[in-house]
Amino acid sequence: MLDAINLTKHYKQQKAVQGISLHLDRGEIVGLLGPNGAGKSTAIAMISSLIQPTSGEVRFEGENSVMEPNNLRKKLGVVPQEIALYEDLTAKENLYFFGRIQKLRGVVLKERVEKVLQQIGLADQGKKLVKNFSGGMKRRLNIGAALLHEPEILIMDEPTVGIDPQSRNYILETVKRLNHEKGMTILYTSHYMEEVEYLCDRIYIMDRGNIIASGTKEEIKNILSSEKTIVVKTERRNETFIQQLKQLPVISKLDESDQVITMVVPKEVQLFSQIFKFADETGAIVHGIEVQTPTLEDVFLHLTGRALRN
């Protein structure tokens, strides 16, 4: 349905996106996963024809949408990372405004506005000013504005940033429904592993402007099929303890955050006795050690040497 081919975007000395390629098949949810600053927003801005790539092309239904974007724009909905609403208008007034931009009029526009308010769970909030909405309600209305023209493909750029867990869960379930009930094709960008793992059929992992891994969830996890993750929880951060662990040659990756140390090691390696030995020597208090099967977070740590949210 859509192919991005060798897309690059350079701003003076900055290479925001460096020759990425990805594709979306009709009816699937594809995740674009990466930390803040990875280049995800720039990539989807090029894919959705909002900005011109420095090089490369985007093909939608066989057409070059960089040169001829009209067909893509008619069938595409975009949910931007930044909330794009008019705070001094009501929810309905916002939807009517964005519906008219999509050339909807009269009875069709009225029906679409009512339908979208139902879809996003704001049917009883239509006459309220957006400035009085919670962050989660604004996010849902932001999604609604992208659904008015009933797009075939929806691009969502980190739609759950900065909202409460209840609104976040509602948005995730809405994405599922749009895909399962409407057959909508969705490109979903996030830096939350659990969201992408829950929603997506396939995943692209992006870092520093490059696609560093792609495939189904299981295919990506199989990158670490010969390794395991050991999570050590301590009472408080102990730099000497951490430095001793880092010197162990069997540890391929190590990440530390507050009182949690995460290490990737070969599957056959047994480290428990060594961990407790170092803890005794350095005065570190270990509250627990857990061995985990590989997760997407582990793969990211393995590929980049840093945790996703760093």
User: Which class of secondary structure composition applies to the elements?
Assistant: alpha/beta
User: What Rg, in angstroms, do the CA atoms define?
Assistant: 23 Å
Instruction: Report the order of strands and helices.
Output: EEEHEEHEHHHEHEHEEHEHEEHEH
Strand percentage lies at 25-35%
Shape: globular
- On the 0 to 100 scale, the average pLDDT is 90
Pfam families: ABC_tran (PF00005)
Protein name: ATP-binding cassette domain-containing protein
Keywords: ATP-binding, Nucleotide-binding
InterPro entries: AAA+_ATPase (IPR003593), ABC_transporter-like_ATP-bd (IPR003439), ABC_transporter-like_CS (IPR017871), P-loop_NTPase (IPR027417)
Describe the structure.
The chain is an alpha/beta fold and 310 residues long. The chain folds into two domains: 2-218, P-loop containing nucleotide triphosphate hydrolases (Rossmann fold, 3-Layer(aba) Sandwich), CATH 3.40.50.300; 226-293, Alpha-Beta Plaits. The protein is built from eleven helices and 14 strands. The protein has helices spanning 40-47, 70-75, 91-101, 106-119, 135-147, 165-182, 193-199, 217-221, 239-246, 272-282, 296-304, and strands at 2-11, 14-24, 29-33, 55-60, 63-64, 76-79, 153-157, 185-190, 202-207, 210-215, 227-234, 253-257, 260-266, 286-292. The strands form three sheets. It has a six-stranded mixed beta sheet with strand order 6-7-8-3-9-10, sandwiched between helices. The protein has a four-stranded antiparallel beta sheet with strand order 2-1-4-5, covered by helices on one side. Helix 5 (135-147) runs parallel beside helix 6. It is globular, with a radius of gyration of 23 Å. The protein starts with a strand and ends in a 6-residue tail after the last helix. The relative contact order is 0.14.
